[in-house]
C-alpha cells in the first residue's frame, strides 16, 4: 500500500473512531449492547494496529535518517562536489512550516514527554480496584476507561494536526447530518415518539428521558438526534460550530460548503434548547475574546488581561451566588437546575464517607450495584452520573483523584492557552504568523470545562477522548512543533 493510500485509510478509520465516541449512544440504540460491543472491538483492534504501524514507521524513518547521516559522513572523497551542489535535505524549520513530505507525517511520540498527569490519574483509577466498594464494577470501569484512552492515543499519535482537524470535522458532519435526517424521518413519517431498538422497558409509561426521539422537530424542539440526548447533541453542535469556524478562518474548506455546515450546527444547537450548552457557548466566547486580546499585546504586557479575566471569573461566581434563581430562569431552568441540586447533595453526602481515596473508580455509574442503583432517581429515571465531573471524581477517587484530575485539566489548559496566544517559535526570531487552528484546543477545553459543571461527560467517551487528545497534542507541540493551518 502506498503512503498516500495508507494515510487515507488512517484518516477514514480516525473519522470512524471520532464518530463512535461522539455518537456511542447511536450504536447502542441501533444494535443494543452486543452491537455496540462489536463496534468497540473494531475500534480497539484498529487503534492497536494504527499505533503499531505508526511506531514501525517512526522506527523506519529514524533508521533511514541515521543511514543518510552515516553515508554523508563517509563521503569524504566527494566533499567538493557536495559543496557545489545544492543541499535539498529538509531542515526542522521546513518540516515545521509544512514545506516537506515529512510534515505530512505525525511525529513519533516521545514517551518521556508524555503527559505524566494522564499516567498518574489512570494509575490511581486502576489501583482503586484494591479498595473499591464494588471491585467487579471497578474492573469493568477501568477497562472501558483504558479502551477509551487507547482510542484517544490512536488519534493523537497517528494523526497530524491538520488531519485531526479534518477527521473531527468529518465525524461532526456525519453526526449532525444523520441527526437532522433522523429527526425529519420521525417527524414526517413515524409521527410519534421512538424508543431504542432491542430494549423492553416493561411498561407503557416510559419516561421522556428514555426515548430515542420524541419527534418534536416541526414544533421547534427540543430534539435529541441520533445520540438520544439534547444536551449531548447540543454540545456536539457547539463543537461543530468551533471546528467549522476554525476551518473557515483557516481556509481549509471551501467557503460555501463551510458556511452550510456552520449554519447546520447553529440550527441544531438552537433546536436542542440546551441550557448547559448555552453556558458552554458563553465560556467559549469569553475564551476567544481573551485569547484574541492576548494576541494583540506583548507577552510582557498581559498582566491587565489576567487581572480582568480573574475579576470576570469572580464576578460570574458572585452573580451565581446572589442571583441564581433569576439566572436559571433566563436559561429556562428551575431553581434546582432540573434536579441537579438534589443529585449533588446525595453525591456529596456519599463522598464524605470516603473523602480521601473515594469508593473506587467506575466511570459511568453501573445501575446494578450499590450505591448507584438508587443514588440519583428522579421522575422514575435512575441517572448514572453525578451531573458534575468534579463531584464524580471526588466520589470515585476522593480528594487525591480530584487533585490529579485538576492537574490533568489544568496543565492541558495552560499549554492550550499559550499555544493559542503565542506566535509559533520555529526559529530565533518571533516573527511567524499566528495559526488560526491554534485556538482550537483552548476553545474546546473552555467548552468542556464549562460543561463539566453540569455534566460528567468529560470523564467518558467523547469528553475523555478530546481531553486526552488535547493533552498529548499540546504537549507534543511544545517539543516538536508541526504545521497548524
Largest sheet: 2 strands, antiparallel
Based on DSSP secondary structure assignment, what is the total number of beta strands?
Answer: 2
Q: Please, what is the average pLDDT?
A: 85
Q: DSSP strand (E) fraction?
A: under 5%
What value does the Rg take, in angstroms? 24 Å
Number of helices: 16
Instruction: Characterize the overall form.
Output: globular
Percent helix, as a range, is 55-70%
| Element-by-element helix/strand order | HHHHHHHHHHHHHEEHHH
Provide the low-confidence segments as ranges: 80-104
Q: Span between N and C termini?
A: 28 Å
Structural class: mainly alpha
Looking at how many chains there are and whether they match, the oligomeric state comes to single chain
Strand order of the largest sheet: 1-2
Task: Summarize the model shown.
The protein has 485 residues and is mostly helical. It has helices at 3-22, 24-74, 79-84, 92-97, 116-127, 135-158, 161-190, 230-250, 255-272, 275-296, 303-322, 324-330, 340-351, 389-421, 440-451, 461-479, and strands at residues 377-378, 381-382. It is globular, with a radius of gyration of 24 Å.
List keywords for this structure.
single chain; 485 residues; mainly alpha; two-stranded antiparallel ribbon; 1% strand; globular
Can you walk me through this structure?
The chain is mainly alpha-helical and 485 residues long. 65% of the residues lie in helices and 1% in strands. It is built from 16 helices and two strands. β1 and β2 form a beta hairpin. The longest helix is centred in the first third of the chain and has 51 residues, at 24-74.
